[in-house]
């Protein structure tokens, strides 16, 4: 009788052990399947975000060999279902400063708070209006080149906007006037009353003769 009880107990323990292994394998398989299915979903969400915010008809102004400033224009599209704010940008151009600029009552200044673009809306970057400004450019960009642009959003995310072509923008397209000889050290973007940014020539601006270190930054 004792021998029979021992055999029965051994069989019962074996059955429980096998059942436990089976459940563990099923749980492990389920976890692997969940992880595998989650990875593509995450990648799709990332791709979707990048595709929802784009720059259409983007262009970088070609620079003169002795120039140290340029600007980026185009139309930013927000095709997502959420409002966004573009607080800044970066690019493949080696520049000391990248800023979002605007012109208010003829005064050029950094746009505080960034570009707010509603869901399904657009923001136009244009001469004499809101635009991306690059200052202290180390090596001028020439017509025919392309510049990689990345948008920086208020929530800390980044959107790769792709390659933007560099082209010549004549005086008829962007007449910024002549600022040669102006002391950059005494020039305050937010305090240039009466100066029309639409009549300023970024390309002809003698940035090299300005005291860049004393530029009033906003």
From TrEMBL:
Keywords: Signal. It comes from the Bacteria. It holds the Pfam family PCuAC. Residues 198-218 have a biased composition (Basic and acidic residues). Residues 35-46 have a biased composition (Low complexity). Residues 29-50, 169-218 are annotated as: Disordered. Residues 1-19 form the signal peptide. Coiled coil: none annotated. This is Copper chaperone PCu(A)C. It comes from Corynebacterium accolens.
